[in-house]
């Protein structure tokens, strides 16, 4: 009985999602391929919703299907040596050049954090595996791909701490020399939530008085950088955009902090700021930090501040929200000043566009060298679509530009 109900609901979900209006503007590159790709994501999201309502499996549990569909077993080949290891108790996949010509020159290294809203994704997905191999062969680099733990099983700061522990472990001289890595040529990088972890790690490392080896660079690919204002012009403009609609991003944020649904609803209404986070709103003020062309006709209103009464979100997520390890945009300029040079990629059709743009403005005015690459026809997650049947030209262009920057700057 229960199973039959589920089957009917599955079918209904699949059918409805096909007919859901998809407002993809014609400026988006390869628009129709994206609309079709999005059908898959929407269908899965509807199924996940139904499944949660029926109490079969929680939303993120169903969404993990995306991760499994693209799952691979990373193996060595003639050019790349792959090993699965533990760095300070955290799982990592290490990709190294197979040619052990270490006597010639020490190597660069990239520590990479995958995306997926702190809830989904894995280093062991085709696109991440492929990207890591490309970084190894084109940069003669060692790539450490980090399998940090995910929500809802683990909430903030577990994801951040896993990321931080890996970087601290790798940046010991004894470990670096084991992989023939030049201590002066290590970068952190990541896409989406992975860009969030990379940015947060770079900040915390600079403030760690015991840290000797520092990073040379940070490369942030359409990163998530702040949880305080979920109504920036890009959130408004792109709220129904494929791959990452606003609801899904809000869901990721709230799940990062807690599985208490009250936070999700408060964040949907952008009414989740407590007196504690309110003092930090000045760091995410888009009317001050967005270039005028991106402010467009949107009028700035500061998010309302809600007192934490019993119906509101509990106080622990409110503390997390004000924590720069979750929202790297929340640090004062004095912390930004000493950061390693940065590459920031943003896409026009992405709710997170303005997070990236604000960070670019703030880093530059603090004197940090920033290369900003904006894709006017780009959409969130584009870099992942390098494989059949959803192989986008823009993904290859993004990968090439990103690797070229690392070639010149790492
Ligand atoms: C945001 O910036 C604008 C313009 O710089 C300023 O007028 C406004 O007071 C700021 N608001 C907050 C909450 O920081
Ligand atoms: C912003 O304010 C102006 C002037 O009050 C108004 O004309 C415009 O429609 C507003 N824009 C939006 C997006 O609400
Ligand atoms: C409300 O927030 C304040 C400041 O963040 C905190 O000190 C207080 O303990 C919170 N109260 C409750 C009931 O959560």
Features:
alpha/beta; 410 residues; binds 2-acetamido-2-deoxy-beta-D-glucopyranose; Rossmann fold; single chain; 10 strands
Order of helices and strands: HHHHEEEHEHHEHEHHHHHHHHEHEEEH
Sheet with most strands: strand arrangement: 1-2-4-3-5-6-7-8
Helix content range: 40-55%
The chain-level mean pLDDT equals 92
- CATH class, anyone? Alpha Beta
Question: What is the second-level CATH architecture?
Answer: 3-Layer(aba) Sandwich
Give the count of structural domains. Answer: 1
Small-molecule binders here are: 2-acetamido-2-deoxy-beta-D-glucopyranose
- How many beta-strand elements? 10
| Main pleated sheet | 8 strands, mixed
Query: Radius of gyration, Cα only, in angstroms?
Result: 21 Å
Instruction: Give the termini distance in whole angstroms.
Output: 59 Å
Question: Number of helical runs?
Answer: 18
Low-confidence stretches: none
State the CATH superfamily name.
Alpha/Beta hydrolase fold, catalytic domain
Q: Which structural category do the helix and sheet elements fall into?
A: alpha/beta
CATH topology: Rossmann fold
Global shape = globular
Strand content: 15-25%
Could you walk me through the main structural features you see in this protein, from its secondary elements to its overall organization?
This protein has 410 residues and is of the alpha/beta class. It has a single domain, classed as Alpha/Beta hydrolase fold, catalytic domain (Rossmann fold, 3-Layer(aba) Sandwich), CATH 3.40.50. Helices cover 43% and strands 17% of the residues. The protein has 18 helices and 10 strands. The chain has helices at residues 2-19, 31-53, 59-63, 65-69, 126-139, 158-170, 173-178, 193-206, 233-237, 246-257, 261-268, 275-278, 286-289, 292-295, 315-321, 333-336, 353-365, 393-409, and strands at residues 80-87, 90-97, 107-113, 141-147, 181-191, 217-221, 341-349, 370-379, 386-387, 390-391. An 8-stranded mixed sheet has the order 1-2-4-3-5-6-7-8, sandwiched between helices. Helix 1 (2-19) packs antiparallel against helix 2 (31-53), helix 5 runs parallel beside helix 18 (393-409) and helix 6 (158-170) packs across helix 8 (193-206). The longest helix has 23 residues, at 31-53. It is globular, with a radius of gyration of 21 Å. The relative contact order is 0.12. One 2-acetamido-2-deoxy-beta-D-glucopyranose is lined by residues 274-276, 308, 315, 318.
């Amino acid at each position: 009985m229960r199973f039959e109900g589920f089957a009917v609901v599955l079918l209904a979900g699949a059918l409805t999602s096909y007919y859901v209006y998809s407002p993809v503007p014609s400026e988006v590159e390869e628009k129709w391929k994206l609309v079709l790709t999005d059908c898959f994501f929407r269908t899965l999201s509807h199924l996940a919703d139904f499944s949660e309502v029926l109490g079969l499996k929680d939303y993120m549990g169903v969404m993990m299907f995306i991760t499994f569909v693209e799952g691979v077993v990373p193996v060595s080949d003639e050019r790349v040596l792959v090993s699965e290891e533990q760095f300070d108790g955290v799982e990592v996949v290490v990709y190294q050049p197979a040619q052990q010509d270490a006597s010639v020159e020490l190597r660069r290294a990239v520590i990479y954090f995958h995306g997926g809203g702190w809830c989904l994704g894995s280093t062991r997905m085709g696109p991440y595996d492929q990207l890591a191999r490309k970084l190894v062969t084109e940069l003669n680099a060692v790539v450490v791909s980090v399998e940090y733990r995910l929500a809802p099983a683990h909430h903030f700061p577990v994801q951040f701490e896993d990321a931080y522990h890996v970087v601290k472990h790798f940046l010991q001289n004894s470990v670096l020399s084991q992989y023939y890595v030049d201590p002066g040529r290590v970068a952190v990088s990541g896409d989406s939530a992975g860009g969030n972890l990379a940015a947060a790690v770079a900040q915390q490392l600079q403030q760690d008085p015991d840290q000797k080896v520092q990073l040379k660079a940070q490369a942030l690919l359409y990163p998530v950088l702040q949880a305080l204002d979920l109504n920036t012009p890009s959130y408004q403009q792109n709220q129904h955009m494929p791959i990452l609609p606003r609801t899904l991003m809000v869901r990721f944020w709230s799940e990062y902090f807690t599985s208490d649904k009250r936070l999700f609803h408060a964040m949907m209404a952008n009414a989740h700021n407590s007196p504690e986070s309110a003092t930090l709103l000045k760091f995410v003020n888009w009317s001050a930090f967005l270039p005028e062309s991106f402010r467009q006709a949107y009028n700035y209103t500061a998010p309302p501040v809600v007192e934490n009464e019993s119906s509101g979100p509990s106080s622990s997520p409110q503390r997390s929200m004000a924590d720069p390890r979750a929202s790297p945009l929340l640090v004062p300029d004095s912390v930004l000043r000493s950061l390693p040079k940065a590459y920031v990629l943003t896409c026009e059709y992405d709710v997170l566009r303005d997070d990236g743009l604000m960070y670019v403005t703030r880093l530059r005015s603090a004197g940090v060298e920033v290369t900003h690459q904006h894709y006017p026809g780009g959409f969130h997650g584009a870099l992942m679509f390098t494989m059949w049947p959803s192989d986008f030209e823009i993904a290859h262009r993004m990968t090439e530009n990103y690797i070229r920057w690392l070639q010149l700057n790492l």
